[in-house]
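User: Teach me something about this protein's shape.
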Amino acid sequence: MSESLPKYWQSLAERAGALPEHARNEFAEELPVGVAAVPPDASSRRDFFKVMGLSAAAAMVACQRAPVQKIIPYVSRPDEVTPGLSLWYASTCNGCSAQCGVLLKTRDGRPIKVEGNDEHPVSKGGVCAVGQASVLSLYDASRARFPSLSCQRTAWAALDGKVKEGLRQATESGMPIRVVLPWVMGPTAEAAVKRFLATYPTARTVRYEPLGELAAIGDAHRVTHGVRVVPDYRFENAKVIASFGADFLGTWVSPVAFTRQYTEARDAAGKRDMALHYQVEPVLTLTGAAADRRFVVSPSDVTPALADLVRRLARKAERAVPAVASVAAPALEETALEELAEALWAQRGRALVVAGGDDVAAQVLANTANALLGNEGNTVSVADGVALDADALTYGELLSELRAGGVGAVLFLGVNPAYADPRGDELAALLKSVLLTVATNDRLDETASLMRFHAPDVTGLESWGDAEPRRGVLSLRQPAVAPLHDTRPLVESLLLWAGAPRSHYDFLRERWEAEVFPRAGVAGQDFSAFWDDAVRRGVVMLPATPVAAPAFREDGLAKALAGVARASVDWELVLYPTVALRDGALANNGWLQEVPDPITKVTWGNPACIAPARAKALGLSDGDVVRVRSGAKTVEVPVLIQAGTHPSVIAVPVGYGRTRAGRIADGIGANGYPLATVVGGQSRRAVPGVTVESTGERQPLALTQTYNRLDGRPHVREAELAAFLANPRAGNEEHEAHGGNDKHPLSIWSGHEYKGHRWALAVDLSACTGCSACVVSCQAENNIPSVGRDEVLRSREMHWMRIDRYYAGDEANPQVVHQPMMCQHCENAPCETVCPVLATVHSSEGLNQQVYNRCVGTRYCANNCPTKVRRFNWFDYKHDEPLERMVLNPDVVVRSRGVMEKCSMCVQRVQEAKASANREGRALRDGDVQTACQQSCPAKAIHFGDLNDSGSAVAKLAKDGRAFRLLEELNIGSSITYLTKIRNTGSGSET
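Assistant: First, the predicted structure itself:
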């Protein structure tokens, strides 16, 4: 490897030169400690080879028939359904509170794929991993299939009668009725809630959110601006970004929209400019991995560090802010604080300060910083934000009422505090004395199973609805399929119980006609035409009307900041959400369980992350089980030594440890929520003063980056911004040394001739954040099975696309780069030359094709693949539940055991686009074909197209000064172009 390239490492073991044997030897016989020696099948493939001999075994595997699947034809085919052709519906994702715009793909009446809606002005065509996986949750066999009374099936009419009678009795006796629901539901759902509240005078809402971030932001703005709102953050307008614990690229508020904005602000190649990003955090996050300057502080120092910054900004602005008396010394080094303050002050009006977590004081300080810098209206807008329920009670206030007794009814609308709150056991006990308890959760989960009545809601793919993610931007949600079970939309349940029964569709349409259509100002168009167009497009942008932004006020600052203090403790616990599982609501989804965490690379579980220095001092290694105690609660969890973690921190992901989610999630990992502390009635996920002790036991971690190694070869390249601006080829000298964009000068291959198309990909490493949306999108598109924890431990995950995460520098605070890795579709593909049966061949359009019914499973191709991107199908990964088979894409064959598989560059999409262009009598245009990974990417880091089309984006990027290909010294001729990563650390020199 060239001396000019940095030394990258994938794990701490690799950095120390102490790799385990199974990582050094791809085909080692020995398995990791704790993994069973016998595969799940009755007899292993290796044993079969030993008995029968390789040639006989290969022949037998090749002759194996795929599982027989029966089809049932339509008795009467719907007019809009054409067999073999897809239908697309514009809709809105409800996987989280961000509510991004999506397109739903259906085949023969069943949804099979979620993609982004390019016309949506907020999400701009991106979809996160959770949104991609929502289509699998539709077919979740563990969903409730009917209403129930005391967990026993009942009829809707009987349930409705008893619920209305219970509500009537509570109202007549003056007993409180409490409706517990999320902070963000959508305008029409909120209108249904208001109709319900108007019917029952003693009813009030209780807003609940497991992570507490929206509530903290809303409460902080009520202090600083007098309104409870989540503002509209505009990262694309920022020149300097300072984040204090906010993982805005991973899980904070609206990561898809923020990722797109962030990449726009940091497009050095297009703008010759790049926003400067500072991150202050205790645990390495996806956002911290992308930062230019990252500072590692303890959890209790995040808010004091922000207070120190605000005081410096106030001095520069010649303004006075309340002092935080309990902060005696800076939480960050003086030089770092002054550097950050100077950078922000130099970009007044074009800077942005954000804070994560559930600490209201931190959010108040972030608001104050933005006000001092004059950012309001530029990089953050309170006027264009999402208004939150101003009159709602808190969950702590609900528990106080339940303790006092006399609550007549409690309704839980899609929330699960019995699982996600440290007071879950207390809630279960208190609810026994309530006369009427109802849940509308989609399954009999930890909370719904405590209720007397369960009125299961439908999923977002089965229901109508709407959202307003930004003022003036309204998006519609329409069903792609009729409800699969005897379930009912939440809105219809509320309206029926309120004595005003209406279908969800009618209620939604009537509200839009009365409230939205008059605001749209569409001249010469009646409502029916407006409605049809809105449903088709999925989003409506109302004309901008000036709204006076609430002014920043300082009168409440002193009270809000009174509790800011630094803790002096041995251990601090951080409970944090992961990119895949978030708060755990969608834990029963195999795609999300198996996608590797972008930072830890762990699947199927939640390890406790600790710093390398602390692990060394305690004698802990990966997989050692520790007992974490917070108050009277304890949790046992295996350790992962994670670079970039503060030495005082033990960080445990939430969303795991479910007990009533379903057969996929139950028993996977440990539930960290009970370890949270309660401050002022609110659950807090940063807990000082916990104790940690080793149990002496071990539990292997299902990691995915201890193998598939490139053995020190130059796989990623990067340069500092100043060096790139001076030389567009900075950091990419190796590319020129190996012939640049021309044919390798020493090649012995005659090369392929492409008279038509030549398909290729380009990946911008500067844009890629590692969010893993592409991984799940590829899995959904290509029928890639989830193999489970045991198989991942054997290094047998089946993902065709992986995100390699590399570190450089100090293990205490490393630099990070993510690299999407898929089949390179090499011109001189080693796999093609070694396959004895021509199962992998080169197409006339540059694709490396895998012919499954030729493959006999020798795995020679995997052994010779230098990028380790081929997968062997060890088993028939059966879909035992009939519903789960409905998610399969009929355009892609379901592979049987004993064959190799890998990325096809979504050849089925290429053929579909060709057929469509042929029907329209035109040639293919650049952009007609989008691979699944490309379409889903929120950062637009992936580009696909025809290299023979000189005007295509991928052809232009292949000739860019930043362009390089993997392993150019081997002359494999990769068809994947990577673009050098550009950093803005301010060093002024090449990395």
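Now, about its shape. The radius of gyration is 28 Å. The longest strand covers residues 633-641. If you'd like, I can walk through any region in more detail.
User: That's plenty for now, thanks!
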